[in-house]
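Fill in residues.
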């Protein structure tokens, strides 16, 4: 089996979008003195779809959501020449070739997102060629179903937040995650607003539901140290991305307090990045996203490296669910509920068919669907997206 052709398409949502509350989520630009709220620029309405075609008729599908326009260029210019004519079963050699050819300007970020998209498509091909779901190539089923947590609850008016949290509880979720809306620039009043968000969700769902909270890189170490004792009474399962990803020492200091488990890693890359996080005892929960971290080829190495830790990948989506299913150290997975298009996290629902929908707080994978189990919703692409070949 050889790779015959690779097709990359960036799609941009051109349908209606729902506006989001101001202060819906903190982000790394909050510290800057910008004239407009930096959050309003934090939307992700582009996606990269990669299809790899083999000479025996298989099509592997991969995707990237990190700077998709640039990731596409990386694949077209640098990765495609490596891949055409190669045997998809040589995942290790192909990954190393892509990684080492782009070493001088790659390693992390956009280039690794591009390599990830290709690698995910290759694993999809392997599953289809072997007539097995991908998780069976990775170790098989470790769970009868995968528990998922509802991941949304953007910072909003407290009554709306409570209503949304109640909805998830009623739908059967046993865990949910909210976003902080305020950071260091918002002073003591913002500290209290953040506490109110967490208190509202905790009091709405009671003590028998897991609640997590995400600062999305929008805080500093100093601010996080101020927040920790105030958040402690609400028994968060974890505090996510309290500082920027480069501040590994800040992560480690927060974790060392032992007050609230610390989660991070959705903006970290490859086994080398995670080796450093683990060596520094920086996180309790490891949250790589398979379509950023280096694809399934890297994800399986990190799950092995971190076998005695908990891995809860960023985002739902099939490329993460198959990894979660095959690893006992992945107790739960993130799940972006199906909603009208807003921030862009939810866009994959409109691009692909086959993503499992949560039922009673669980998703399941089908033992009888080979590969990752996704197809491209071409009809919706034609109707609601601008497609850039
Ligand atoms: Mg996150």
């Amino acid at each position: 089996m050889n790779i015959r052709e690779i097709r990359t398409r960036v799609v941009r949502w051109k349908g209606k979008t729902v506006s989001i509350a101001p202060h819906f989520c903190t982000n790394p630009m909050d510290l800057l003195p910008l004239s407009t709220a930096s959050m309003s620029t934090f939307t992700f309405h582009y996606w990269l779809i990669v299809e790899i075609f083999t000479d025996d008729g298989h099509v592997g599908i991969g995707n990237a959501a990190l700077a998709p326009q640039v990731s596409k260029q990386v694949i077209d210019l640098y990765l495609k020449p490596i891949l055409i004519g190669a045997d998809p079963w040589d995942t290790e050699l192909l990954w190393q070739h892509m990684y080492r050819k782009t070493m001088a300007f790659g390693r992390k970020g956009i280039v690794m997102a591009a390599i990830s998209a290709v690698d995910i498509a290759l694993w999809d091909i392997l599953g289809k060629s072997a007539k097995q779901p991908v998780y069976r190539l990775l170790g098989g089923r470790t769970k009868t179903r995968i528990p998922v947590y509802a991941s949304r609850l953007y910072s909003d008016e407290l009554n709306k937040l409570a209503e949304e949290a109640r909805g998830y509880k009623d739908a059967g979720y046993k865990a949910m995650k909210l976003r902080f809306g305020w950071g260091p620039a918002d002073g003591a009043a913002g500290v209290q607003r953040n506490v109110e968000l967490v208190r509202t969700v905790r009091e709405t769902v009671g003590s028998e539901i897991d609640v997590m909270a995400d600062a999305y890189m929008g805080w500093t170490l100093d601010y996080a140290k101020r927040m920790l004792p105030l958040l402690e009474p609400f028994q968060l399962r974890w505090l996510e991305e309290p500082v920027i990803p480069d501040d590994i020492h800040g992560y480690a200091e927060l974790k060392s307090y032992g007050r609230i488990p610390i989660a991070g890693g959705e903006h970290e890359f490859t086994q080398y990045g995670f080796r450093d996080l683990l060596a520094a005892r920086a996180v309790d929960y490891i949250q790589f996203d398979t379509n950023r971290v280096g694809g399934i080829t890297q994800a399986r190495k990190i799950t092995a490296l971190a076998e005695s830790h908990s891995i809860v990948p960023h985002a739902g989506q099939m490329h993460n669910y198959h990894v979660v299913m095959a690893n006992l150290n992945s107790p739960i997975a993130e799940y972006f509920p199906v909603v009208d298009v807003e921030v862009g996290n939810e866009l994959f629902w409109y691009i692909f068919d086959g993503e499992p929908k949560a039922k009673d707080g669980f998703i399941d994978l089908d033992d009888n669907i080979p590969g990752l189990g996704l197809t491209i919703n071409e009809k919706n692409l034609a109707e609601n997206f601008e497609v850039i070949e």
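Residues 166 and 205 are 6 Å apart (CA to CA).
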